Every structure is written in C-alpha cells, then in structure tokens.
Amino acid sequence: MILCLGVAADPTFTAGLRALRRAGIAFRPVDLPSLTMRGSIRIPLERPADTVLSLDGESHRAGDFTAVWGRLVEVASAAPTAELAAASAGQTEALARILEFVPGKVMNPPLREASGFTKLLHSVVLGEVGGWRIPETCLTSDPGEARDFVRGCRAGAIFKGASATKTWATVFEPHHESRLPRLVHLPVLFQERIVGPDVRVHVVGGRSFGELIDSPVLDYRTVRGTNDYRPLVPPPEIAEGCARLTGHCGVPLLGVDFKIERATGEWFFLEANSMPCFEGYDERAGGAISRAIVEWLVTP
Questions:
Q1: 3-state DSSP: the chain helix, strand, coil percent, rounded to 5?
Q2: Consecutive H or E run containing 31
Q3: For 164-222, how does the pLDDT look when each residue is reduced to its tens digit (9 = 90+)?
Q4: Which positions ≥6 away from 204 have C-beta within 8 Å?
Q5: What's the pTM value of the predicted model, to 2 decimals?
C-alpha cells in the first residue's frame, strides 16, 4: 500500500495518482489542505513511524505503508485565516520531518536536498557532482559589480531570483541598467547567456528520460503552443551524472535542467529540482516517467 501526501489541486499530484491507479497499485491519498481543516496528526515523539493521520473517519499509520509519495506543496499562504495558515505551515514541517523516519521508501524526502535554497550554491555543488560545466555566474547586490559582469558576457546575460522561490529567467537588456541601483535591497543572480535549446532530464532512481526544448523565448515555461519538444536520449556522461545526483541528494526523483550551446554543442548544467512538475513531460513521453515512478515505489 502506497501513502500519497499532496494537494488535490496540484496537477502533478493527481497525475501520479492516475499512474498508480492505471498500474493497479493500492494507495491512500491524503489531501493536505483537507487534513489541516478537518483532520489531525498524532505524533508519538519517541516513535515517529507510529504517526497517525486522521481524516474523514479514516486513520492511517505512517509506518504501515510500504512506500510514501510526498509532494508537500506549500499552501499556507493561500489559507483563508491566520490560524489555518499557521496550522498548515506546522503540518508541512511536521510531515517533512516524519518522512525522515518512516521505514518504507519515500519519494521524495523534502529535507534531503537543501542546496536549492540558494541557486548559486545549488548549481556549483550539484554541477561538480555531475561533472558538468555551469554558465559564468555572478550573485551580487552591488550595482557596479553586476554592470561589469553583464558587460563582460560576450553573448549577453540573463538574470533571475537567487532563492528557492520559483523565478523566471529574463534577458538583460540596455534599459535594465537604470534599475541596477535596486540591487542594494536584494541580491540577484546574473549569468552569461547560453544561446541554444533547453534540455530537461527526469531521473527516477538511475533511469533518465530526456527532452529537448527549442523555444522562441528565453524561458520556455512562459509560452504555450510555440515550443518544439523532442525526445532525447541523454549522452552517457549526462545520464551517469544524473544518476550520481540522486545518490548525492538522497532523493530518487529529480528534474535536471541543462542548456546546450548551439554553436559548440557543449552542455551547461542549470539546476536540479527535487519536486519537479513532470506531468507535461510525462504526457509527451507516453507515460514513461510516471511508470518509472510507480515501479520505483513498488519495488522492494
């Protein structure tokens, strides 16, 4: 039996539930907002695996499941009251800690991969594990340093947020120079621009599923209907590095992002997401990613 912890409004969570259902695997889904509003969690501190989740007349002991699929999406900011927001945030933190102690397999333990809270540390550390080059990068709150870095990028520069919060990459254009003084209030991540297609590699255990994305815009996630998606078998050095990342991070599922420089064919590592939204890639791959996730969850 698989315990599934997530948010019913999250399309990635529901895609995973459909994959389990198609495979005929028994599972128990728990909607986290409903657990906050109508349920309860009982945590014996001396035996975290005996934690019991109760909701709508049903109780589930965490240690009774052979595996857990957890997508602990943060929803506290959308809570209708301050009390529910506090309860939701506390519940998410408690579940993240409990998943470190359950006896079965967990995909993915939220506390394992923490480098993503700082994108520069994240790319440097994980790029070294994978054995990949990263774009020239500058994380700064100094307007002059940012200006000098951008002017030194032969193919131009991009910028994006530096924290774990979802951010969009933007091409640095001349009119952005007038905004650089704002950096003193918040550091920003600047990178040399790599001109060429994107690659997303989903890694499930040691298996890699790649997709090449050609887009008319810098950040392909910001447009629909205009991107060209093609399946891609990652080169051995990329697939092997991705498999090493899952071991290094202690999580079996990663969405790993690369850029390929069109002029040279060189691969550049961008980041690895330990809670990837895989459903669109999975649909284009004929369900291969979700089948691999199900297989990982049910394999002893």
A1: 40, 25, 35
A2: strand 27-31
A3: 677 888 999 999 999 999 999 989 999 999 999 999 999 998 899 999 999 999 889 88
A4: 252, 253, 289, 292, 293, 295, 296
A5: 0.90
